[in-house]
Amino acid sequence: MLGAIGLDERQETAYRALVAAGAAELADLAHRLALPEADTERVLRRLEQQGLAAQSSARPGRWVAAPPGVALGALLIQQRHELEQAELASALLAEEYRAEASEPAVHDLVEVVTGASAVAQRFHQLQLGAVSEVCALVTGKPIAVTGMENESEERATSRGVSYRVVVERDVLSTPFGIMELSAALSRDEQCRVVDRVPTKLVVADGSLAMVPLTARGAEPAALVVHASGLLESLMGLFEAVWREAMPLRLGEGGGVHEDGVGPDPTDLEILSLLLAGLTDASVAKQLDLGLRTVQRRVKGLMELTGVSTRLQLGWHAYERGWVARTESA
To answer: Who has greater pLDDT, 210 or 172?
Structure first.
């Protein structure tokens, strides 16, 4: 939690222990931290340099915590000042860049990024730099970053960045596909599914996009596209796929039947996956249910809606608001 002001995990733990005790002998603190005394002393020396701890003048070897309100406040002010200076430097560099390239050359509108680590780093930067919205087309064959490794997505949504994501149907059959989509939906991301997406794609704020250049098996490479006609075309491609995709819901509440009996969250998950094109067996596997349980629940929904075919069930599901064909962008 205090890493933002320059404390590593050991230093933060030591300072917290010292604050809790008020003051402590080196040996006692080393025991509490489960560290050798030499390591503990190095940590305390670092805290001393930052004004967070001091040795007792009356008892050598005894360390005292500085009041958090004063000591941490000073570090926060220093950190804010450094951030303001960095922001100012960034603005000056941006202004210098614009002055030198008011009419950017064509090659400045695209970047070629090569290598798995470089592609992954640029992918994370694109999301972390987003301010309002990230749009993505996702396949079941990641090039450099898997869904489970995409921590930037969670960090971006925690800042209020919205996500619209279209996944290929194959993603639902991958080992962690349902888990990743459930996590995304729990963060209020909008997710849709289609048979196939034309390409992997991620667009941040409609101003920066990233698409792969190589197929799986070759050295990962990607094209980063800045504001241009090409970027507008990529965004148009996303919107076209988004309009045709099927909204996906997993474990959400749904509409209630007139007599007070309606589908429960598991029923809605089954409906959503069936309408996304999965077979009964695939749905059972993804939701860790028995095949007969899935079939029994589908039959119950058909009886509830008074229909005789699954096609009619899908139509009634839309009519009753259990699933939605269109959502606000």
So the answer is: 210
Q: Which two tokens stand for residue 295?
A: 């079939």
- pTM exceeds 0.70, yes or no: no
Q: How far apart are CA 286 and CA 289, in angstroms?
A: 8
Give the distance, in angstroms, between the CA of residue 248 and the centroid of all CA atoms in the same chain. Answer: 18
Distance CA 131, CA 204 (A): 8
pLDDT in tens, 25-49: 888 888 888 889 888 889 888 888 8
For residues 262 and 290, give the distance between their C-alpha atoms in angstroms, rounded to a whole number: 21
Q: What is the CA radius of gyration of the chain?
A: 27
Q: Enumerate domains of the chain plus CATH numbers.
A: 1-102 (1.10.10.10), 106-247 (3.30.870.10), 249-329 (1.10.10.10)
The DSSP string of 20-61 is HHSEEEHHHHHHHHT--HHHHHHHHHHHHHTTSEEE-SSSTT
Strands 190-194 and 162-168: parallel
Encoded tokens for 95: 């202004």
CA–CA gap between residue 49 and residue 184 (Å, rounded): 42
Q: Please check whether residue 19 is in contact with residue 11, taking contact to mean a CB–CB distance below 8 angstroms.
A: no
